[in-house]
Specification:
By secondary structure, this protein is α+β, with helices and mostly antiparallel strands. The chain contains 25 helices and 15 strands. The strands form 4 sheets. It has a 6-stranded antiparallel β-sheet, with no helix packed on it. The chain has a 4-stranded antiparallel β-sheet with strand order 2-14-5-8, with no helix packed on it. It is globular.
Length: 830
């Protein structure tokens, strides 16, 4: 951060920073947006009742592009604290909203505010529909002709399958729209900003050219202080003001304490990063950096893309989305292969011709198919077609690169460990031979067969582990940004934080991968005696990954990370690093400090930042009355609180089995100022989410026994087995049992043998290669995390983040002989 740069370059960086900040505030920040209330004269002439067997529908014409709130006038006091369901449809009868709302215990009669947060088209008709419960709700209605508006239509009563239109009458309601500046106004503002920035940059460049002899320079840290430093100060003041002065997020004393810790720790940490003194360094020209490390950066980015594709696969709820994710992982995997060589091997005339030709033909075919497909088929079909075209393009580039490597005789087959390669080949052959109608074993063998082949022919293969670790870090950093903006920590139904996934288990195994990679990186940087100011990025990501894992309350993730850390911390420090117990103690203290500092910041971040950003990403499976939606109150009890998280944690991790929900209902009675105020109206979480299990294993032991009974030599077509209660288990919740069930005992034995051989070689590899490769222990760390988590989850799949990563880390072992390393070199020199 403290490299010296030319003054005119510093001015360019500062101007571009504030230009980007201004564009973000005007665009996504919406600082120029204004709310507009639309209401009639509200002369009440009667009431309409919403019951369990009677629903109310209301038609209205939109007058804006974003409908923020719907306010309904309620006259029935008995409705307080009761849940009702609201649905909103457009004129094509497509459902836009399906959520439960609760009538708060406010003054009745009065208006019930329902956050909608939907994009609308001015002039189009929309319909909202309210469904009742056993407790009726009375809504006031008025004569439409007396409202003074022409956008309110008639309301309808739906009862016993019959629809009764109430002509010339509408429900008394208020619509709040959020209006954005016109496109012309925004274009004019952006133009002025860009021209102003260009003028300043041009002037700085001109003045710099006049003063070349003086060589005026400043440090990059000086630039950071004028940009990120001021942004940090403004952001911290804003968060303190809305959290503690305006009390926007509500909460009890313990919530405020955690918010204060989170905001304070984050502010002090980033202030230290920005303002701490650092030794000055000379500026390295960008061209030189790109020439030296450009392909490594591309490979790390490609690995990050692979993991993002794996995230999409694990979140896919329909076959079409899984098909798209398969293609996404394949495309990024091909890009990884292309980075296993010099720039000249990838970027040449042949590749340029292929890109131009395949791109032209692919675009033409895409446009032709788009014109032929029906509208209802176009979206998904075109997405598949787009990815297929990209696969053809990247596969062609891979084929060209492979031919070039063959011509140049790049493959160092003489360095291959034939015994290990043979063991791996036997396993892959058996996996494909006994795939039993499954396509993914062929997919896996294709991807990693090419991956291992390109690795053998790569002259810089010692960089693979560093690049892969960089890819994991990049992917996690992007996932953190997404989660902190759009994945709020919810209290009900999903009481354990699931990060960027829709299940806690997948979240835990993904974070296990991240923690494994960052553990090795952090330990080795501490061994190298790096200054704390040089460790901040690694320490921050490590602390965040462990903190998010803690918030999942997943025993699977806890077990895997604890075992991995218990093995790797002493092994890397004492054996690989050849340090003493004092260094081990220092490393453990640094790791613990990173977690303790990041935990309140991580909790506070996922509690308040998504509420500020106000655009939560909700998976379809998460849609329920407990979901957080756009424009929901920022102090809603739908958000997680410290007291409720403590309750969930105690029951999940520490308490004995609970057979009823009396404690939960008593706990929930304490919420009397918002949603879900009575136990009768509560949307409860599942037993597994709340930790109210009667079996510590969550029934896995019974599942294991059922799978063991089904063992045979060749495997089965179906993944599941019938359980004693007649239900079918989706999978074995154990990778080893699942491999044996799917592919048979023969393949299962090969899988176990290959795993044991790999584990032994990873220990030796880490010891032999540690001094020449800082990431030599990375394969072992990831493999331990995979092996432990596999005891209770199914992870061996090419589109599972941890499963894909485990296949990657086998590559260095292919070109490693146990006699290699420093000892072998000494013998050769003698």
């Amino acid at each position: 951060m403290n490299r010296r740069i030319r003054t005119q370059h510093a001015i360019v960086y500062i101007v571009l920073f504030y230009l980007a900040a201004a564009i973000l505030l005007l665009g996504p920040g919406g600082v120029l947006k204004k709310d507009r209330l639309l209401k009639g004269n509200e002369r009440i002439v009667g009431t309409a009742t919403v019951r369990l067997d009677q629903q109310i529908q209301q038609v209205f014409i939109c007058e804006g592009t974003y409908l923020k709130y719907l306010d309904l006038y309620v006259t029935s006091p008995e409705s307080a604290g009761k849940n009702y369901r609201l649905l909103v449809y457009d004129e094509l009868n497509q459902r836009l909203i399906n959520r439960e709302v609760c009538m708060p215990e406010t003054e009745i009669p009065g208006f019930l505010r329902i956050p909608l947060g939907i994009e609308t088209v001015p002039g189009r008709a929309y319909v909202w529909q309210l469904q009742g419960t056993d407790t009726p709700m009375d809504l006031a209605f008025e004569n439409t002709g007396e409202t003074g508006l022409v956008v309110f239509g008639n309301y309808y009563i739906l009862e016993n399958g019959e629809v009764s239109e109430q002509e010339t009458q509408n429900i008394v309601m208020r619509l709040t729209y959020t209006d954005s500046p016109s496109a012309k106004k925004m274009a004019a503002l952006y133009t002025v900003l860009i021209l102003g920035a260009a003028f300043i940059i041009g002037t700085a460049g001109y003045m710099g050219s006049k003063r070349r002899k003086r060589k005026e320079e400043v440090t990059f840290q000086w630039v950071a202080r004028l940009t990120a430093g001021l942004a940090l100060l403004g952001g911290t003041i804003y968060l303190i003001y809305i959290t503690f002065v305006q009390n926007v997020f509500g909460g009890k004393t313990e919530d405020k304490v955690v918010y204060a810790l989170g905001i304070g720790v984050a502010a002090l940490f980033f202030a230290w990063v920005i303002f701490a003194k650092r030794p000055e360094k000379k500026e390295i020209p960008l061209a030189e950096l790109v020439k030296k490390s450009g392909m490594d950066w591309l490979q790390a980015a490609a690995f990050a893309g692979v993991l993002w594709g794996c995230i999409h696969f694990m979140n896919a709820q329909y076959q079409i989305w899984q098909d798209l994710a398969y293609r996404e992982v394949l495309i990024w995997s091909f890009l990884v292969l292309l980075t296993m060589g010099s720039a000249r091997q990838v970027f040449h005339k042949g590749s340029a011709i292929w890109i131009a030709l395949s791109g032209l033909l692919g675009t033409g075919y895409y446009m032709f198919q788009k014109s032929q497909l029906a509208q209802e088929q176009a979206q998904t079909r075109l997405l598949l077609l787009r990815d297929d075209i990209l696969i053809v393009m990247t596969a062609g580039l891979v084929a060209l690169a492979l031919v070039k490597k063959i011509k140049q005789k790049s493959f160092a087959f003489g360095t291959v460990n034939r015994l290990y390669a043979g063991t791996l080949a036997v396993f892959l052959i058996l996996l494909v031979a006994f795939r039993n109608t499954r396509g993914w074993p062929v997919y896996l063998a294709l991807i990693f067969g090419l991956f291992y082949l390109f690795y053998i022919g790569w002259e810089n293969r010692e960089r693979l582990l560093a690049n892969f670790c960089g890819g994991v870090m990049l992917n996690f950093a992007l996932a953190c940004v997404f989660a902190l903006a759009r994945r709020p920590f919810r209290a009900w139904v999903y009481s354990r934080y699931n990060f960027v996934f829709h299940t806690v288990t997948i979240t835990a195994t993904y974070l296990t991968l991240v923690v494994c990679a960052l553990t090795v990186r952090l330990l080795w940087k501490l061994k190298e005696g790096k200054r704390l100011t040089d460790l901040w990025g690694t320490a921050l990501l490590y602390g965040l990954s462990v903190s998010f894992l803690f918030l999942t309350l997943s025993r699977t993730g806890y077990l895997a990370v604890i075992v991995m850390t218990a093995v790797m911390a002493p092994f890397v420090t004492l054996v690989c690093g050849r340090q003493g117990f004092g260094a081990l103690l220092k490393n453990l203290i640094c790791m613990a400090a990173a977690v303790l500092l990041c935990l309140p910041a991580a909790y506070t971040g996922v509690r308040i930042l998504p509420a500020i950003y106000n655009d939560p990403y909700i998976f379809e499976v998460e849609e329920s009355g407990a979901a957080i939606h756009r424009d929901d109150p920022k102090d809603s009890t739908g958000y997680m609180s410290v007291s409720y998280f403590k309750y969930v944690m105690e029951n999940k991790l520490f308490a004995a089995a609970v057979s009823d929900r009396e404690k939960l209902e008593q706990f929930m009675l304490c919420f009397n100022d918002g949603l879900f105020v009575r136990s009768g109206g509560v949307l409860l979480a599942s037993n597994e989410d709340l930790g109210l299990q009667e079996d510590f294993s969550n029934g896995r032991f019974e599942i294991f026994q059922c799978y063991i009974k089904e063992w045979n030599l060749t495997g089965h077509d179906e993944m599941g087995v019938t359980l004693p209660d007649g239900s079918v288990s989706v999978h074995a919740h154990n990778t080893y049992l699942q491999v044996i069930h799917d592919h048979g005992l023969i393949t299962g034995i090969a899988y176990l043998v290959f795993g044991l051989v790999s584990a032994c070689m990873m220990f030796v590899f880490a010891i032999r290669k540690s001094r020449e490769n800082a990431y030599a222990a990375l394969p072992l760390a990831i493999f331990i995390g995979f092996a432990i988590a596999s005891l209770v989850e199914w992870l061996f799949h090419p589109c599972n983040p941890l499963g894909y990563s485990t296949m990657v880390i086998f590559a260095p072992l292919l070109c490693f002989l146990p006699g290699e390393g420093e000892d072998a070199k000494k013998k050769q020199s003698v």
